[in-house]
Amino acid sequence: MDLRISDIISDSIVDGPGLRLTVFLQGCIHNCKGCHNPETHNLDGGIIVSAEYILEKFFENPLLDGITFSGGEPLLQPEPVAFIAEKVKEKGFNVIIYTGFVWEKIIEKKDDFIGVLKYTDILIDGPFIEELKSYDLDFKGSANQRAIDVSKSLFYNKIVLWKY
Ligand code: SF4
User: Fold this and answer.
1) Which of 36, 37, 39, 77 to mutate to test the pocket of ligand 1 (most atoms within 8 A of CB)?
2) When you count CB atoms within 10 A of the terminal residue's CB, does the N or C end of the chain come out lower?
3) Which of 142, 147, 141 is nearest to 103 (CA)?
4) What are the structural domains of the chain?
């Protein structure tokens, strides 16, 4: 299974707790003003790699705590993201997704995204809003974004924020 990516960082400490492999998916439709990764917007840009390649990169580093999918918009490629997330979770690591969609919209299309959500621990939702930008927000770019505990939110059928 293939996915279109912009970049991979193999030792990130800013995209979630601990040391993480961060995969920047290529392609985004949100066009947030002040976006830090405009090179990830082109839906036909970046490079195509296999999900197995990402898994190899992940498992070759024994120091990692988990994987983060950022972008770009990871939820435009839900199948390969779910495939990788499942394999990573199976081995006891955690999974974080950054998305420009808000949780309420994702849940409206739950059937399209349940494969991804099943294997995601934390979903950081919502567009980047430049006016709400802050450097004091752990792992988030702007104050509107929420770090959502996915399994609890699905279970209780309401947003439960992830606790640090
Ligand atoms: S969702 Fe992320 S990548 Fe897409 S435009 Fe907004 S900040 Fe940029």
Assistant:
1) 37
2) C
3) 147
4) 2-156 (3.20.20.70)
